[in-house]
Each structure stands twice: as C-alpha cells, then as structure tokens.
Amino acid sequence: xxxxxxxxxRPLERELADGARDRVVAGGLEKLVQNLARPFPExxxxxxxxxGMDLQTRLERLKKAIALLGGQAKVPSEPCPSATxxxxxxxxxxxxxxxxxPGGRKKLAELGLRSLRDLLHYYPRRYEDRRTLGxxxxxxxxxxxxxxxxxxSRELVKTPKKGMQLVQVRFMDAWGWKFTGVWxxxxxxxxxxxxxxxxxxxGRVQRRGGAISMVVEYFxxxxxxxxxxxxxxxxxxxxxxxxxxxxxxxxxxxxxxxPHLPDxxxxxxxxxxxxxxxxxxxxxxFPDTEEKLEQALYRLKFDEYLLLELKVMITSGGSAxxxxxxxxxxxxxERFRATLPFQLTRAQERVLGEILSDMQSERQMARxxxxxxxxxxxxxxxxxxxxxxxNGAQGALMAPTEILAKxxxxxxxxxxxxxxVRVDLLVGSLSQGEKKTVLERLRTGQTQVVVGTHxxxxxxxxxxxxxxxxxxxxHRFGVLQRRRLLGxxxxxxxxxxxxxxxxxxxxxxxxxxxxQIDELPPGRIPVRTKLLTQKTRLQAYAFARxxxxxxxxxxxxxxxxxEGASEATLELAAATRLRxxxxxxxxxxxxxxxxxxxxxxxxDAVMERFRRGEFDLxxxxxxxxxxxxxxxxxxxxxxxxxxxxxxQLHQLRGRVGRGGLEAYCILIAGETSKRTLERLRVIEGSxxxxxxxxxxxxxxxxxxxxxxxxxxxxxxxxxxLASDQEIIERSRALAQAILETDPYLxxxxxxxxxxxxxxxxxxxxxxxxx
Length: 770
Ligand code: ADP
Ligand code: MG
Description:
By secondary structure, the chain is α/β, with parallel strands linked by helices. It is built from 26 helices and 20 strands. Helix 16 links the parallel strand 10 (423-426) and strand 11.
C-alpha cells in the first residue's frame, strides 16, 4: 500500500509542478489514476474527469489528491512554468502557417488534419511510379497516360452546337510524336500553355485513325518542383474537393519548413539500425527509390507500434507494478514433477520457466499463456499454484462456466492433492451451507487453492492472502470482472486456447507478456479432417452412424447466426430442423440438442449427460463449452463451416479426440466459392492452431477474427498485424527498455518521444486489459 501510495504521489506532484497541463503522464493523468489509485477511491473520485477541468479546478483537485495521499503540495512558483525543453521547429503549429485559405483549412480539417504533425503523418495510400514517362504513341485508346509534351501551337475553339469552349494545343512528345491536348470549358488554360513550354500532362487518350488526342485532367510545368511526375508519386486518401496535387504541394511545403525533422528516437536509431525520422518522413511522401521507401515505411511502422506499446504500458502502469516475490526452490519443482505421470514437453518447460521467472521477480506477473486445446496449459497452472501454496499464499483459478470449473477442480485435485495442497471449489450451485464453509476456509486461509466461476468475484468472497490468480479462457471475462479479482494485485496468469497470432496478442494485450505452448504432448493423434460440399453432405452422417455403432459419440455443430432475439429464434429453428433431419437419418441414435437460448444450468446439464454417455449425438449451435472433455467423442461434423472463423473451426475440432481414440472432423461447405474452399482447406491441411490463426488473419483481416470483433482492434495506419511480427517484437522490446529506465518518460532525452506520444496517443488505438 505504502509503495503504491508513493508511486501515485510522484506523478501527481510532477503534474502540479508542471502547472496541471496534463502533459506529465503520456496518455493522460486520469488513465494512470484509474489504474494506480484503485485502492484509493477518494483520490480517484477527486481526479475523475481531470482532462475536462479548467486549470484552476485541476490545481485545486491535484492539491486535494496529494493531501489525501499524505504528500506535500508544492505550488508552482509561476503559474505555468515550462517543464518541456524547447523543441525546435513546432510540429504542432496549425496548418495555417502554410498560408492556406480558410476553405483549404476546412477541407483539411475534414481529413482530420490540423497541425503540421498531422499532415506529415498523413501517409500516402499508395504510390504511382511516374519516373520514366513513355511516348504518347504507346498509350492505348481510352487509357489514362502521363506524358511530357512541348507546346507547338494552341487555339481556343468554340463548338458551334453546344457553345462549348475548347482549348486545343498541339504537342510533341520527347520521341517526336505529335498529339492534341484538349481542355473543355477552361479558356483560362490558354494563358498557362505558352508556345515552347514543356508540360507534364495526365489524361485520357483517344485514337482516331492516325490522330492522337488527350483530354487533359491535369498538367504541370515540367520545370520547377515537379511533385506529380518524373518521380514515384504519392497518392493520398483525399476527399472531394481536396486534390492530389494540392496535398502533394502542401506536404512538400511542410517538409520544406523543417530543415531537419526532430527525431524522438534520436538516442536509439543507431543501435536499432533504423533510419532517422527525417529520412523516413521525406521518403515516405516523396520516395527516391523503392528501397528507400521500404526503409522509410519500416521506420514509420516501428514508431506506430512503439507508441502503441508505450501507451498501453504506461497507462496500465503495467511494467511498474510491484507484485509478490515468490521463492522457487529446486526441491519444489522436483516434488511437483515427481507426481506427474509424464514428462513436460519442451514447449511446456519453456513456458514454465517464463512463468516461474515472473513469479520470482518483484514485478507483478501479467502473463498470457496460449496453447491449443490439450497442449497442457492446466499442468502449468497447477505448477504455478503449487509454488504459490508452498510460499504460503493462496491461489485461485477462475473458469468461465461451472462445468469447466468442475473439470479444472478435478484436474487440479489430481495434481495437487498428492502434494498436500488443499483445493476447494466455489460455484453458484453449491448449497448455502457448502458455500459458507468454503468462504470461511478462504477467509482463514485454510483453502490454499480455490477453483471457481464468477462466484469467486462476488461480494462476500474474501481471501486470506491471494497471491496468484489463474484465469482460464480470458476472453469471456470483462475487464471489470478481472479487476475485482485483481484488487489484491496477485500475480496473474491468463490461459487461452484461442490461438491468436503472436503479433495480434502483443498488440491487443500490450501489457501482458505472451507465452505460447506451440507443441502438443507426444502420442497425440491429430484429428483427421475432411471437407465435403452440399452434394456429398450425407456421407458425413453415414460415417457418424459407423462411429456411433462403435460406441463413440458425435458432435454436429450448426452456426449461430448472430446475437439478437430474432436471430436466436432462427438459429434455434435451424438447429431443431437439423435435429429432426438427423433423427430420421439415424433412427437408432440417441440425439439431443444444445442451443444458445438455454440457461447456463441447462447447458451444463446437457453437457454432463453427454459426458456420461447418456446419448450418442449432440446437435449444437456454437455454444459447446470450450475445454469440456468428452473422452468418447470421436467425430465433429460442422455444417455451413464457411460461417465460422478458421480459428474457431480449429477450436471446435479440438472437442474431439481427447480420449486417445482416433478422431475425425468433417467440414460441410454451404457454398463453394473459391475463397471459401481456400479458407476451409487451411483447416483440412493443418492441425497447427497458430498457423491456422495466422492464415485466418491473412484471409479475413483482423477485425473479423471472431470473438475479437468488438474489442477494439488497434487502429493502425501502416501496420499490418498479419505480417509485422518482427517489427512488433522489436518495438515492444525497445518500449520496455525505455520505460525500465524512465517509467514516465521524464528524462530530457525522452521529451520529444513523450510529446509525440501525447500528440498521437489518440491515433494509436489499443485495447485496455486489466
Ligand atoms: P489444456 O489445458 O491446454 O487443454 P491440459 O493441461 O488439460 O491441456 O492437458 C490435456 C491432457 O494432456 C491432460 O490429460 C494432461 O494430463 C495431458 N498432458 C499434459 N501435458 C502432457 C505431457 N507433457 N505429456 C503427456 N500428456 C500430457
Ligand atoms: Mg484446458
């Protein structure tokens, strides 16, 4: 508590000394307060809405908050002392300095461009290579072309019928070919094309017999600063009324305004092998060569991810939070291993090492362990919980549903009971009496490890000394729910079977370290997967009959359409129809139904009966609980498989083959477009969850990853999560290194970086975790 208090006081005092301008904490003071001041609700209240307050109120509230925390409020000697060193030319100057008319300024504001900084970071959408201009003779009829032409003669013509004014200019291109340039109803052009001038013309080419003409769309004098021709030309995302040539000129002028653009990473670029920001911005807008453009974009992407990581790390207080330091002795590990009937895989060993070094360090562990279903995450959780127990702390494992909690309880008991660790279960369905007993045991510390559902974070649950929280399948828990469990700041281990590509995990969960178990225990038989179409669909059920005759069980999944009442009805109707169809196809099979409109208890009851083998075939919408083991289930049939994300299909497939029996998955494609088949073949051809997730990301784009859709994907301008893993890892490492020595970016060498972060924080989106 004491340490948290000083940790919070420091930035508040600095903020006060800086004149309450909300510049001390990158990302805003309030964010930090929300995270760090959880144990001080009065302070949180005092500073809530800080950003929106006027200066005077801010100063008062700050003083109050500092007093609440027992600090000394040092009033700044002058009203607004400048804590930020002079920064050279001002990137934050409004675009007006470029001598824009009000109309231009308004249009740019519509593009979100207000300052020079905005403009310089308004990267081109794409580029056109106009370095070498061809001859007009090679341009096809109707095509768009850019050529250089010398004016031979010109005239203004009035068409007799419609009374249009035509400017007609005879040109000769560099190869000696003649053509006519035409402008409709722009008589003023005549003055801009003096005889003998050399112009760069872009327009649509028309060929009539031997005659070539061009309806000119735009043209420039070839001399001078040619921005639209003779080079690799940037093409911006423009709006109606904001021309490309206008934007190019504007960006050019902005670049000219800075003899040398200041580089927030000045101190690091050399070690990192990065080009300077000056180079990067100039080349990104007006590249000399493809190679330089590539280097430039690399640097800008690097910055984009770096800012994203910094923002997440700073606002979550992540790397700065102190946690518990656990002791891990070789003896403990030996005892744990001795109870296992198997050896840990290499991947498990690696991840266990990562977990243990987190637990031993003074920092609060915040680690996400990802691994396919069956990769052996639970064993690692057991190991961590055992270490916590040996250290005299309590551990909790929270699962999203009751049936999963019970399964974990059984497994953990199996691992931990022989080691003398007292494991309890806390779920909603316990009787009042049982609940009371468990709560009492939790409070007094008799319980060493508790497994439960949301019941664990309900009021009235009090731990004696919670040291480690393990959260299974985290995506089902809201951030708030987790915060409650974390009120005591235990070390946190999140386990997820959703194979998120590492690049995505690092950005979505910027403040969680990510470990991956990318190897299955030996002897696993991969699920054999086959893709069928509507025509061959019934083969799936012929096969299902064979499996059922062997005494095996079958899942049939039909897609959930989407949430919402009427859709849920549709979905139920579809599932019911499918059930009826299967009942007539397989009259001998015992069939039951699981769907999204059931209450959690009802779902649990159906799953429990299926697990006990009371029926053979389960028709289900996608509500099958991730992680429930049905050992005799050997076949998973998925109808309209194209409606699912690949990662989700892979997860569904993981429901079968968990009992050592040969297992199968049949995907039925509801439609057979090339794209659909390409996607589904990824599943057919691979059993590697991470490979599949990456393909999914590549084929669908991150926003569509199921289950992640609403969670606020980072909004990246340049970054492409599907291919940027290396850059992400590097920028993340740098962000960590920087914050390690300077947690709030207070050092003078980070002043520019901080300013950059403040200025661009809104532009780099992120998802808040913990
Ligand atoms: P997950 O939680 O990742 O789905 P589990 O930890 O439940 O995986 O492990 C799945 C099954 O594999 C369990 O029955 C477990 O006992 C077994 N298992 C775990 N690790 C190994 C290993 N290294 N070698 C053999 N079996 C293992
Ligand atoms: Mg599991």
